[in-house]
Amino acid sequence: MKNRVTQLFGIKFPIIQAGMVWCSGWKLAAAVSNAGGLGIIGSGSMHPDTLKEHIQKYKKAIRNPLAINVPLLYPEIEKLINIILDEEIRIVFTSAGNPATWTPVLKEKGITVVHVVSSQKFARKAVQAGVDAVVAEGFEAGGHNGREETTTMCLVPLVCEAVQVPVIAAGGIGSGKSMMAAFALGAEGVQVGSRFAASIESSAHIDFKERVAGASEGETILTMKKLTPVRLIKNSYYEQIREAESHGASPGELTKILGEKRAKKGIFEGDMVEGELEIGQISASISRIQPAAEIVKELWEEFCKSKASICSLDLTTDSYLTDYLC
């Protein structure tokens, strides 16, 4: 497929793997890129030296395009940026912060920059900062979310209307059918998180992957809205948050609960009771742990099948009226 997203990144399929903390190491990124999508190493849970190690391991394994996700509020962001420049990374996805701070620096070095947004307003600001594309991430997504709580179905067309750069849809996308729906709304690519978080190559703990594969409808919830909204699976840790919020906990108190390396404990170390289990609503549709290449293949094949099914519909006015009246 050729469109603005595949041409921008030099990839075969407009399928981007999200840069998820504790899940998106070099093995996952390499597997996705090797399958024709765009693999992303998530630097948000890495020390600078760790990021450098993952980039170098990726380069030894595969020569296909690689992107790095950089949370702009990361404490040592200057070190991360310097590593990205030194390693000559050509694609950077930024999130959780003001894109105007680092986008000009990256663009000056010829790097393609994409920013994750949760509203029409922030999409415009990202474009003003000079980004090449935006990820419109709806409230269904796992992990940290926008305060607007706008669903993907509503957000994508709003962002497409607001900007002229390519829009990549994210949040609640885990199948070729949902990918087709995103394209119908104006997106030119999709970013998939939860399915890849539960893949074989994901660096997450096997207990976390199995918990995701066993999640049922309604088990995730968006919480911590006073501080930084995050979607996670309900467990004992969530109950601590819920109880604190019900007693009017201050942002400082919530920060203390959040700041005890809970995401690492849950996702990376496999503590399903006291850990923070960040995952999206689409987890209810995930039933097995698969190789990343198989996920890419399934997404693309179902997307093509859905497209063919829609194109085969008889959309003539007379036929529609006949069917409706009969």
Q: How does this structure look, described?
A:
This protein is about 45% helix and about 15% strand. The protein is α/β, with parallel strands linked by helices. The chain folds into two domains: about 5-205 and about 290-310, Aldolase class I (TIM Barrel), CATH 3.20.20; about 215-280, no CATH class. It has an eight-stranded parallel sheet with strand order 1-9-8-6-5-4-3-2. Strands 7-11-10 form a three-stranded antiparallel sheet, with helices on one face. The longest helix is centred in the last third of the chain and has 20 residues, at about 290-310. The model has no long low-confidence stretch (mean pLDDT about 95).
